[in-house]
Amino acid sequence: MEAIGKRRWAIAEGYIPSGSVDPDDPALVSHETACILNAGEREAKVAITLFFKDRAPVGPYRVIVPARRTAHIRFNDLEEPEPVPRDTDYASVIEADVPIIVQHTRLDSRRAEIALMTTMAFADG
Amino acid sequence: MEAIGKRRWAIAEGYIPSGSVDPDDPALVSHETACILNAGEREAKVAITLFFKDRAPVGPYRVIVPARRTAHIRFNDLEEPEPVPRDTDYASVIEADVPIIVQHTRLDSRRAEIALMTTMAFADG
Amino acid sequence: MEAIGKRRWAIAEGYIPSGSVDPDDPALVSHETACILNAGEREAKVAITLFFKDRAPVGPYRVIVPARRTAHIRFNDLEEPEPVPRDTDYASVIEADVPIIVQHTRLDSRRAEIALMTTMAFADG
Amino acid sequence: MEAIGKRRWAIAEGYIPSGSVDPDDPALVSHETACILNAGEREAKVAITLFFKDRAPVGPYRVIVPARRTAHIRFNDLEEPEPVPRDTDYASVIEADVPIIVQHTRLDSRRAEIALMTTMAFADG
């Protein structure tokens, strides 16, 4: 399939609550996700940079999304160069060497019931 | 009405939870929907391709949206070429031969209360 | 302020649940809203057309948004040419004679807790 | 990092519920947020103007977002030229002297459980 998307995306919202009612169920742990689709025929080398309120940006976090595959990246799982702090406002810029699609999702389970939100990220250029 | 929209759309998020508190109420079963609007004067032939994390894309799933009509397609209901797996990350590309609008929605009823999320899909070109 | 926005918008999702846990509280009754911002110096004459799955479009519903004002239009409250059916999939096209911004929101209170979703509508042209 | 975004954004939805189940937990108080990302190398001078249903716009509210930082601005916290009224429909235009990204979020805790919604704001020009 012909590639679809853009090479540069941004998400201004970011916040991983430290609490979850049921921390033993991975699907229902509070998390923030960057869902990335690489519909094209070439592997995507993705670099994520995190921005904060009162300190320098951190990154890049490097992720590979194979050709014709999707990767739903949980910010909770990012480890290198450092884990994403909980209960802290952040934002992100996501850059790739081929066109990709980026959609942002949060599942919040601080309370007994889950809350969900999603939006397409902002596509630059 | 003059056609409105684009011919190529993408949704990077996709996940149909297998669980629902009340599986006997179709309106409240956990589901993901691609809401398609064909505001123009010609029938839309729509092809949906699904992308996964670790296997080849599946599709096309074929849907007809008549002229001047909307179709809210539940991914849960797609059957050919194969049903959409539950509890599995996926993404989708939606292509049509005339301009359409695509909006993505999830209703999640794994817990007693429902959670909702929606976004316009990414419009290409 | 200089006008901002577009003259033609579309929302592919539409569904007003008939049920609400507490139908006596207007703020918490299940509803769908088209939030319209007219930031410019001229009154906006807005026409809303509704699309359905299996019958002809209905409209236009006519709304005036004064210059430099916002109007949060509940689809529940549209009466002319006919009320919007409950528990029915629909979609909408929103046209104005000056640039406006349109954002779509649903508050769903079929269960004891509310669920929310929102997205910018699709801006044409 | 090269600047990313636009200089003029709009959010048509705005509504801060006066009620919160647990008003003593700042993270869970009902709030509306404009998440702003300034990924570029120059400080952003941001001006927010609020629009209402039946009175003149109010503003500008002035906010500085340093270079390479994010600021998640709660409308609840805006004080000058006047606080944002509760239980009142509003909309906003957000302007900056350098490119920024704006994402809109509401956390609603009128009921015991929270509801979330988010969308990228509309980027003009």
Give the overall form of chain A.
globular
Low-pLDDT stretches of chain A are none
Per DSSP E runs of 2 or more residues, the count of β-strands of chain A stands at: 8
Proportion of beta-strand residues of chain A: over 45%
Q: Number of DSSP helices of chain A?
A: 0
Overview of this protein structure:
The structure is a homotetramer of 125-residue chains. In chain A, 0% of the residues lie in helices and 51% in strands. With 125 residues, chain A is mainly beta. In chain A, strand 3 and strand 4 form a beta hairpin. Chain A starts with 5 loop residues before the first strand and ends with a strand. Chains in contact: A-B, A-C, A-D, B-C, B-D, C-D. Chains B and C meet through strand 2, strand 5, strand 6 and strand 7 of B and strand 1, strand 3, strand 6 and strand 7 of C.
Secondary-structure blueprint of this entry?
The structure is a homotetramer of 125-residue chains.
Chain A: E1 6-11, E2 31-38, E3 44-52, E4 58-65, E5 69-74, E6 90-108, E7 115-120, E8 122-123
Antiparallel strand pairs in A: 1-6, 1-8, 2-5, 2-6, 3-4, 3-6, 6-7
Index terms:
8 strands, homotetramer, mainly beta, 51% strand, eight-stranded antiparallel beta sheet, 125 residues
Q: Quick summary of this structure?
A:
4 copies of one chain form a homotetramer. Chain A has strands at residues 6-11, 31-38, 44-52, 58-65, 69-74, 90-108, 115-120, 122-123. With 125 residues, chain A is mostly beta strands.
